[in-house]
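Tokens as discussed.
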């Protein structure tokens, strides 16, 4: 797999870059719901990077990426419906790609731009593929983090074993440690880094216990997936992936159990303009907290210091 050179340029983000918390109203067949997003950088900048998280995560996973790229981009990091600060859906069967894509189209309309670049981790990468491969797509460049049209069944079993399961914690610190254990394959993160990305995943209940913010019902369509449904979904994703016109960078953790090297090779062969990079010692999915990983993203989206 071809590996883009890492950018050695230091982050040029403003020293006090902080996000604005915003919301946009979206629709489903069951009614309206509000989707939260953080926005970094100049709100009038027409150059937009949308960063979308994984299945049980939140948009705050991208704080470091956003801070590093908001000198060039208006960076927008949504909490997908049912996660983070976004509303839970009335009908749990709507926790599926078509609904997520529709919500992102609404978000992009709110941003009032014609094109966006896209950074999607796991589920966020699937949403990006579905949107980028659709006719008239606004997606210009796409970074897909550790996911592809084909998902390894063993990883889906692993994820299904914990997603939506009830969990209560006496303190947020206990919850953060539990989430770190579930996401250990993200890489060798420090305690401060785990707290940085995991603390936003929790909320305190009226009885003072702490719990995950995400709707446990996101597991409903996940659990209802049959082999036939999975095969039809994979075929649809391959068709969408092959239709993507802009540059694509596939990032993979070298020890990922969800995205195989064989699938990455097939993505390169079947895609129109696809590169790949692999990070040693990491599974599903690279956290993009380190300067090296963020440098790869910056080089793909912006170019090196002489080009930006």
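Sequence:
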């Amino acid at each position: 797999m071809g590996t883009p050179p890492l950018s050695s340029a230091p982050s040029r983000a403003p020293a006090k870059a902080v996000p604005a918390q915003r919301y946009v109203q979206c629709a489903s067949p069951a009614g309206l719901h509000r989707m939260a997003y953080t926005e970094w950088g100049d709100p009038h900048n027409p150059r937009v990077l949308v960063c979308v998280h994984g299945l049980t995560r939140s948009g705050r996973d991208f704080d470091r990426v956003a801070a590093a790229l908001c000198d060039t981009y208006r960076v927008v990091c949504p909490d997908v419906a049912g996660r983070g600060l976004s509303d839970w859906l009335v009908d749990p069967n709507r926790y599926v790609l078509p609904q997520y894509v529709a919500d992102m189209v609404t978000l992009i309309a709110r941003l009032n731009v014609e094109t966006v670049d896209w950074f999607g981790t796991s589920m966020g990468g699937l949403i990006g593929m579905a949107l980028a491969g659709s006719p008239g797509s606004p997606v210009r460049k796409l970074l897909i983090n550790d996911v592809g049209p084909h998902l390894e069944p063993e990883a889906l079993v692993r994820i299904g074993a914990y997603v939506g399961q009830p969990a209560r914690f006496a303190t947020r610190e206990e919850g953060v440690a539990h989430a770190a254990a579930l996401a250990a394959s993200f890489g060798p993160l420090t305690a401060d880094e785990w707290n940085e990305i995991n603390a936003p995943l929790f909320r305190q209940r009226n009885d003072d216990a702490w719990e995950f913010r995400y709707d446990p019902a996101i597991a409903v369509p996940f659990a209802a997936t049959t082999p036939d449904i999975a095969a039809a979904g994979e075929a649809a994703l391959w068709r969408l992936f092959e239709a993507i016109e802009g540059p694509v960078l596939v990032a993979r953790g070298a020890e990922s159990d969800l995205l195989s090297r064989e699938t990455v090779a097939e993505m390169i062969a079947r895609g129109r303009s696809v590169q790949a990079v692999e990070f040693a010692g990491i599974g599903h999915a690279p956290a993009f907290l380190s300067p090296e990983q963020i440098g790869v993203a910056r080089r793909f989206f912006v170019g090196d210091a002489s080009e930006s």
